[in-house]
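Worked example 2:
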Amino acid sequence: MALTQKSLPKAKTVAAKKAEKSVKVVAKVANKPQISKPQATKQAVRSEKISAAKSAKATQAKVSLKVEKKAEKDPYQEANRRYFQTGVASYYANMFNGRLTANGEIFSNNKMTAAHRTLPFGTMVEVINLRNGRKVIVRINDRGPYVGKRVIDLSKVAASKIGMVSSGLAKVKLNILSKK
């Protein structure tokens, strides 16, 4: 492309503008304190160490949060639940407090325990009241109930948690959480 008289001044102005910008950049750099190469290297290494430490702390925090979330989960996880049976539940009368259960423990209406005819002692069972949807987890430590078609006898505290104390009986669903 041939330069004409008209395009020559425009070319100069573009070149002049670029030169001015480079002078401004040099001036800005000149205003900053000069750092020798060893100092610059030390600063770069130091900033890398700081950023690595920050990222390590962040990773450690994320890991500890994940561990805490896992610890907060129910010890009898969803995957271990399996349907067992549906039927009528009742609860122990106060007169059974202090008596021995079938596995040799002393019965207390204040513990989250229950009696079942066939489940092994120590089995953890989720009991769901089908009328209101409330749930409770109990440990099997006794045998029974031996009245009618009842499937489980709960301690009074477990019965109150699922809202069946006033009625005395409730239709429930049993899910086995773990067997000992």
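Residues 25-30 have pLDDT under 50 and may be disordered. The longest strand covers residues 82-91.
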